[in-house]
């Protein structure tokens, strides 16, 4: 009997939305959201054991999808473009740290990494619009897996991670 996967054959998808001080992270198993939360960059604990147990996942393949920061035209720019360097570094660090955990459960040869710019997965939609379009794509069980960070102003990172993950399993089209 074969294991169910999403339509791309991805058993485990880990989506990362990087930010300067932390990242939104979403875990999808066989196309279903199992955990989504905010991870501060200075934390030691990356996996919420109360939400996801990688020992039980038994995945033979894993795909990381990392949002790659993008510099827009100057007239559209918000803030200092140099901050994007910090965002990229935070995303790379989170990817590396999570990779080191996942490689204990999935063969290194069966782990892929995709880097996508926001324009690919969410076009130019504002964060609020993305959140309102992502939520209806989730079942009640999946919505219960989304953890609100403190402060709540960081929630956009979590919703973006969920959106990236859903995009990665073909459940979200902006």
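-> sequence recovered:
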């Amino acid at each position: 009997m074969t294991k169910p996967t999403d339509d791309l054959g991805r058993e485990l998808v880990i989506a990362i939305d990087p930010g300067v001080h932390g990242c939104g992270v979403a875990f999808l198993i066989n196309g279903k959201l199992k955990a989504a939360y905010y991870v501060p960059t200075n934390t030691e604990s990356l996996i919420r054991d109360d939400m996801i147990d990688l020992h039980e996942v038994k995945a033979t393949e894993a795909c990381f999808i990392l949002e790659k920061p993008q510099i827009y035209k100057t007239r559209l720019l918000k803030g200092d473009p140099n901050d994007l360097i910090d965002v990229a570094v935070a995303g790379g660090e989170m990817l590396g740290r999570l990779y080191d955990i996942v490689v204990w459960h999935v063969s290194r040869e069966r782990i892929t990494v995709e880097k996508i710019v926001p324009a690919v997965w969410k076009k130019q939609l504002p964060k609020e619009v993305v959140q309102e379009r992502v939520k209806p794509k989730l079942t009640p069980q999946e919505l219960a897996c989304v953890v609100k960070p403190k402060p709540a102003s960081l929630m956009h990172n979590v919703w973006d991670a969920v959106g990236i993950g859903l995009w990665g399993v073909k459940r979200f089209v902006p």
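The chain is about 30% helix and 20% strand.
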